[in-house]
Amino acid sequence: MTANLPTEASDLPLYEQDYCLWLQSAIEALRSRRLEAVDIDNLVEELEDLGRREKKAVYSDLRVLLIHLLKWKYQPQKRTNSWRVTIAEHRQRLEESFEVSPSLRRYYQECFAQCYQAARRGSSAQTGMPVDNFPGECPFKLKQVLDLSWLPD
Question: 93: Cβ–Cβ under 8 A, 6 or more apart, which residues?
Fold first, then answer.
């Protein structure tokens, strides 16, 4: 399959005219080993962005998971199946990320404390409880947070 260039003439590089077409062109050039046809600078930038997006997804899933675990623990009278589903869903998302990219498990460990602080603030905002009602240090172990069958008391 050969990538077609846009029909309208433009001074803009293909990367800025049509992102999907630019990607397809880069893939075809790489597959056929035509490295001179590859927009190296933009390809490197896109690969870096891809890595950042993967880390951002882990951080986001972990933050949502921690928020719901905190709400589960500190608002037992308001527990719902919706919270249980959200906890399970974000655990599953994290596990899927770790299966595809095992190095993201290391990032999970690295960002855990920072993410917990964001989760404290998020829990406070969602529950209306003062942030100080949630411990300064995470009351959950890293393994517990990912354990599909564990919920805090």
Answer: 57, 61
Cα–Cα distance, 69 to 31 (Å, whole number): 46
Look at residue 11 in the predicted model and tell me its pLDDT: 85
What does the alpha-carbon distance between residue 49 and residue 78 come to, in Å, rounded to a whole number? Answer: 39
CA gap 89, 148 in Å, rounded: 10
Q: Is residue 42 part of a domain?
A: no
Domain region containing 87 = 51-146
pLDDT of 139 above 60: yes
How far is residue 36's CA from residue 52's CA, in Å, rounded to a whole number? 27
Q: What is the structure's pLDDT at 15?
A: 85
Count of CB atoms within 10 A of residue 120's CB? 20
**Number of domains into which the chain is organized:** 1
Residue 138 lies in a domain: yes
Mean pLDDT calculated for residue range 118-135: 98
pTM of the model: 0.83
Assess whether pLDDT exceeds 90 at residue 64. yes
